[in-house]
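[STRUCTURE TOKENS]
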Amino acid sequence: MEKVILEKIKATEKIVRQIETENCLVFVVDRAVSKEEIKAEVESLFDVKVAGVRTSTQKNKKQAFVKLKPKFSAGDLATKLGVL
């Protein structure tokens, strides 16, 4: 059985601001995955290049803040995914 890395994309007012200003998307991810796995998964699923990944764990949930390289638009990807 294949491991699910990206569980869902998050969208709050603050996250929408991050998408627009920092070119950054936020995903809820499995707690056991590494930043390298998250980066590889986002790049292969969405055909983009990732500049960096930060993670945060709160209330037994892990969030990945995925910053895209300037050539790629987080806003365009969020629109495709139905977030914006």
Remarks:
- The helical segments are 13-22, 35-46, 74-80.
- The first helix runs from residue 13 to 22.
- DSSP finds three helices and four strands in the chain.
- The domain at 6-80 is CATH 3.30.70.330 (Alpha-Beta Plaits).
